[in-house]
Amino acid sequence: MTATIIDGKGFAAGLRERIAGHVAGLKSQHGITPGLAVVIVGEDPASQVYVASKARLTAEVGMHSVKHELPRETSQAALLQLIDELNRDDAIHGILVQMPVPDQIDPNAVINAISPEKDVDCFTPANVGKLAIGLPGPVSCTPLGCLMLLRDQLGELSGKEAVIIGRSNLVGKPLAQLLLRDNCTVTMAHSRTADLASVVKRADIVVAAAGRPNMVKGDWLKPGATVIDVGINRVPAPERGEGKTRLVGDVEFDSAADVAGAITPVPGGVGPMTIACLLANTITTASLLNGLVPPK
Ligand code: NDP
């Protein structure tokens, strides 16, 4: 293995420390305690673990943390009512509704109900538009985390060839906006891309966000490429015992680490950055809601 392992977990811990400093500054200089409300509907175990760790880390950086756990059969009207209350609550600066929501609820109705000023996931059309034209506002958490790791690893991104695999509203599309803003030449690949391996071969930066375990192989990569593996896939791990599983990314780690210049591990790469960026977004929205310039 020749690649540098990009330590997202360590980077995220440092970012949370800086965020704690911003929280302390907002409290002491402006009397503002940034507040984040996380809403989860239903009992999906993975989402529950994720929401619990969001709530814990929010409190750890000194923010006001509120968690609403609603039963699976919650109606759309009841959820929209709660969002409306949170929109009007001055102690709350960020609202996150954990997706996916159960079938009786239309996710677009939920997204449209969240005030864009409190939309820390950057899901609302208003914030997606702001991101596209470069106005200040929250930036989608996972793409922001990827950008931070890339800047930290490579410094200047200008002129780099970036290939993003996956074009979701959550990851691929917003990340393309961010990399364009940093003057990369961006290619977006997806399930209909012809000869994906040769598209990936020309990339200085590869971001894999397809949700396909171990799809990107080492021999697809340009030697020295920087690889950001967003994928989180649970696969059977019989070597750990009967019925056991483990997490893998979208990149076949061992073969890729022999060719890449740097690579994120799964777990411990992009995942921890996502939560830290959610907290960073809450600082941004708390600042903007109070007429302050958000910290860089
Ligand atoms: P989606 O399912 O919404 O999107 C997947 C994208 O990958 C689609 O654009 C799809 O193409 C493309 N794709 C699927 N199969 C292939 C293929 N064989 N070749 C090329 N492209 C393909 O997923 P998300 O964006 O929500 O998530 C992607 C992955 O990232 C998942 O593993 C998810 O768990 C993980 N994730 C991790 C986060 C983190 O914090 N680390 C946060 C969010 C997601 P098409 O549009 O043509 O269907």
From TrEMBL:
It comes from Devosia pacifica. Keywords: Amino-acid biosynthesis, Histidine biosynthesis, Hydrolase, Methionine biosynthesis, Multifunctional enzyme, NADP, One-carbon metabolism, Oxidoreductase, Purine biosynthesis. NCBIfam families: PRK14186.1, PRK14188.1. Belongs to the tetrahydrofolate dehydrogenase/cyclohydrolase family. Catalyzes the oxidation of 5,10-methylenetetrahydrofolate to 5,10-methenyltetrahydrofolate and then the hydrolysis of 5,10-methenyltetrahydrofolate to 10-formyltetrahydrofolate. This is Bifunctional protein FolD. GO terms for molecular function: methenyltetrahydrofolate cyclohydrolase activity; methylenetetrahydrofolate dehydrogenase (NADP+) activity. PROSITE patterns: THF_DHG_CYH_2. NADP(+) binds at residues 166-168, 232. Residues 140-286 form the Tetrahydrofolate dehydrogenase/cyclohydrolase NAD(P)-binding domain. It catalyses: (6R)-5,10-methylene-5,6,7,8-tetrahydrofolate + NADP(+) = (6R)-5,10-methenyltetrahydrofolate + NADPH; (6R)-5,10-methenyltetrahydrofolate + H2O = (6R)-10-formyltetrahydrofolate + H(+). The keyword Lipid metabolism does not apply. Gene3D superfamilies: Leucine Dehydrogenase, chain A, domain 1, NAD(P)-binding Rossmann-like Domain. GO terms for cellular component: cytosol. One of its GO terms (biological process) is L-histidine biosynthetic process. Homodimer. Pathway: One-carbon metabolism; tetrahydrofolate interconversion. Its EC number is 1.5.1.5, 3.5.4.9. Residues 6-121 form the Tetrahydrofolate dehydrogenase/cyclohydrolase catalytic domain.
